[in-house]
């Protein structure tokens, strides 16, 4: 089943007949594969690792699939399709990336849901593109078309990152936050509660949904001997975390994972301010799967320490899989759950 934006793209497939097409930030369906019914060749770059895994089995000579924040080469394309991102600042980055990979006078297509802010594209398009016009609308989505009229500037990642100092209970750290990654110039209330009530951690610790690396950096500030692994599903978050660790002279292993699936072996601790959104939709599946999988990934005596909004249904899952619910701290918005695997 194709998402609504993907269906809108397909019904305009005459725009890229027999062309070499690049798709940026595609959604959780098989749209890149279906484009081959019209396009000559398709390359797709996903910033979401789950979406990348959905497409991966369908790779073929005319369908190149990549995960990350940039393509591995400088190939140029006839058409670039952008799925308008949930995080509006990320759109400017994707437009720059599209411009770098478009042939002169190449075609830009931008698609998105009405409620996702797609209309903002008219003001966001830089001056190396001509003014975008509305090509089509259907299924509560819009499709805009533009054209590359001047050479786009090369991407320098430092132009897309905010660096700032952040006070944590463990001390001051430097945060490097790329566009599209949630972070504030102050410690968010949930993470502050989590870090203010840390249990004793040792050995191999997993930071699940690492984001810009706030939790990992705070832990290493206090306990540099910890062997921390940082995972996230978002390419910009993973790159932000790497930059944050480097800025603080900390060392940790950072890689993409869909839930805990790509992690290996057992951990002495799992810590997280876990995400609970999938695109524009809030979902409890992430929370439920995270609890269930965590039990399988912890050593005996291992510590599971997370913070979550009070309204999220963690208690039932924790009770089912850990056999007890231990709330070590709470306020009017958040709860900190801290459980151990029985020896």
TrEMBL record:
Its EC number is 2.1.1.172. Residues 6-164 form the Methyltransferase small N-terminal domain. It is found in: Cytoplasm. GO terms for molecular function: 16S rRNA (guanine(1207)-N(2))-methyltransferase activity. Keywords: Cytoplasm, Methyltransferase, rRNA processing, S-adenosyl-L-methionine, Transferase. Residues 172-338 form the Methyltransferase small domain. It catalyses: guanosine(1207) in 16S rRNA + S-adenosyl-L-methionine = N(2)-methylguanosine(1207) in 16S rRNA + S-adenosyl-L-homocysteine + H(+). InterPro entries: Mtase_sm_N, rRNA_ssu_MeTfrase_C, RsmC/RlmG, SAM-dependent_MTases_sf, Small_mtfrase_dom. GO terms for cellular component: cytoplasm. The keyword rRNA processing applies. Belongs to the methyltransferase superfamily. RsmC family. Specifically methylates the guanine in position 1207 of 16S rRNA in the 30S particle. Monomer. This is Ribosomal RNA small subunit methyltransferase C. It comes from Shewanella atlantica. The gene is rsmC.
């Amino acid at each position: 089943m194709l998402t609504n934006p993907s269906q809108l793209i397909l019904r305009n497939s005459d725009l890229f007949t027999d062309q070499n097409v690049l798709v940026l930030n595609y959604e959780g369906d098989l749209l890149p594969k279906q484009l081959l019914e019209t396009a000559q060749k398709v390359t797709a770059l996903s910033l979401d690792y789950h979406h990348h895994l959905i497409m991966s089995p369908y790779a073929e000579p005319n369908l190149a699939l990549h995960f990350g924040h940039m393509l591995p080469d400088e190939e140029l394309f006839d058409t670039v399709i952008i799925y308008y991102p949930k995080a509006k600042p990320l759109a400017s980055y994707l437009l720059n990336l599209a411009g770098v990979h478009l042939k002169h006078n190449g075609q830009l297509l931008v698609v998105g849901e009405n409620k996702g802010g797609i209309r903002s594209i008219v003001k966001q398009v830089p001056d190396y593109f001509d003014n975008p016009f509305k090509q089509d609308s259907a299924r509560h989505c819009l499709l805009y078309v533009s054209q590359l009229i001047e050479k786009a500037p090369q991407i320098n990642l430092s132009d897309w990152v905010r660096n700032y100092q952040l006070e944590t209970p463990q001390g001051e750290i430097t945060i490097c936050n790329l566009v599209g990654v949630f972070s504030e110039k102050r410690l968010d209330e949930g993470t502050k509660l989590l870090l203010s009530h840390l249990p004793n951690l040792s050995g191999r610790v997993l930071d699940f949904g690492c984001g810009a690396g706030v939790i990992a950096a705070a832990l290493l500030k206090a306990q540099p001997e910890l062997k921390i692994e940082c995972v996230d599903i978002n390419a910009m978050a993973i790159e932000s975390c790497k930059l944050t660790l480097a800025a603080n002279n900390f060392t940790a292993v950072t890689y993409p994972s869909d839930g805990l699936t790509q992690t290996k072996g057992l951990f002495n601790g799992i810590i997280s301010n876990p995400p609970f959104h999938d695109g524009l939709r809030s979902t409890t599946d992430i929370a439920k799967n995270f609890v269930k999988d965590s039990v399988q990934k912890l050593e005996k005596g291992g510590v599971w320490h997370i913070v979550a909004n009070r309204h999220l249904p963690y208690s039932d899952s924790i009770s089912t899989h850990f056999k007890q619910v231990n709330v070590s701290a709470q306020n009017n918005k958040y709860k900190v759950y801290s459980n151990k695997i029985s020896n």
